[in-house]
Amino acid sequence: MAFIFYDTETTGADRSFDQILQFAAALTDDDLNVIDSFEIRCRLLPHVVPSPGAMVVTGVRVDQLFDLQIPSHYEMCRRIHEVLTAWSPATVVGYNSISFDEELLRRAFYSSLLPIYLTNTGGNSRLDILPLAIAAHTFAPEGFNWPVNEKGRTSFKLDRLAPANGFEHSNAHDALADVYATIHIARLIKDRAPVVWESAMAYRSKAIATQYVELNSVFVATRLRFGLCSSFLVTAIGTNPDNSGEVFLLDLRQDPAALSTMTSEKLTAHIATKPRPVSSLKLNASPLFLPIETVGEKAPGYDLGMEEITRRSELVRSDEGLRRRLISAVLQARSPFPESPHLEEQIYGSFYSRSDQSRIDEFREAGWPRRFELSGQFEDRRLRGLSRRLIYIDAPDVMPANMRADYARAIAARIHSRTETTGRWTTLAQAIEEGREMLTNAHPGSEEILREHLAKLTAWRDELSILLGETGLSSAPSEGRSSDPVRILPESVEGAP
What we know:
Elements: E1 2-10, E2 20-28, E3 34-41, H1 52-58, H2 62-65, H3 73-87, E4 90-94, H4 97-111, E5 125-128, H5 129-139, H6 158-164, H7 175-192, H8 194-202, H9 206-215, E6 219-225, E7 228-240, E8 243-251, H10 256-260, H11 264-270, E9 278-282, E10 288-290, H12 292-295, H13 306-317, H14 320-333, H15 354-365, H16 368-375, H17 381-394, H18 401-416, H19 428-439, H20 444-471
Parallel strand pairs: 1-4, 4-5
Antiparallel strand pairs: 1-2, 2-3, 6-7, 6-10, 7-8, 8-9
């Protein structure tokens, strides 16, 4: 099967409220030889404020953000979806992609009324090279040079790991350059840590990963959380009853006999201790399972001896009551996530109705005037908001003048300065403060970019201050008004940023 390696460069690090500015991908064959490549940039969305820190890292200049000669965000997303679909089926690969780039890509598709699960449907599977690199460091370190960061710890950042292992990466943080750096690391892992690579290849699909945990009573699971990787000897105790893609694993350093005697209260308290006795993995997110015989004594818990490890795994797998109690304790300890009032964070809500899906299909093929008509016909509130927002950004002339004015005011009030606490987007006030702080210690290479962005951000803030002052919609709530300018808009502009 082919591989699609990809990378994004963005306005910041928030997966819901920042945007992709540059996307690049390369199609390779099964031996990781590049067959084709693709790269695209887009303009800045009017309701997104770029982080000066991100702009310094990526080297994006102000004129690139507002260049009308490059595609809009919507045009970029349609083109990305078109190219990736044409290259499918394949394994879609990135570096720290499953927790970051893919979530940004899904939200970009969502905001553009495109199918969001492209990377793991239609025969596609997913792979993240970062966990593989960390696993290689743990189980097959000899074939690599491991860079050390300022704190004396091994650094797995792509812009350090790739050059340390022979890749010329002078233009790091350019999306296409990072794609080729990721391919380079993947080739090294395939050649120098074959156990890790072959295990990753074996369980790329949810079905095969599910079968593996059902059939193997003991194995090594490797998990990446918050940039840290941990590997441990486990046995599967079952899947989430509400999500078959999530499997729960018991660390076999835990004695099931002792767990079975605990009261429900003690069991709930015990599973909250660290290291976690019970962990979970997503079966459709390219989990890394390693046979115990391939890693041996390097696996935490191996010192118990295989006889004891086997006894523990058989005991827990034969005790259905204990498995249910453990899973129940984990689920009860989880805090529910309240629904966000913001469109950006409603991506994983209910599925669209069949009639709405038909309207989405027509929306994609229609001209802008017809798209405006369709935007008012969607049953799902999210689709009404997303479609009207697309129209305001890409074809505002098909909207009534008063609707355009309402959108302009809503955007101004949202990004001028913080007036409510339910959103995490960057405001102009925050970006200016960040840029000024960075400027005090900026080196000559970044000072010019910082000053350029600060000048634009300041002028942008001043323009919006005038707009807010003229319309009476200030950043502070007036009497009888909600503190959230988005939610005071009439139904006609529902979904304004």
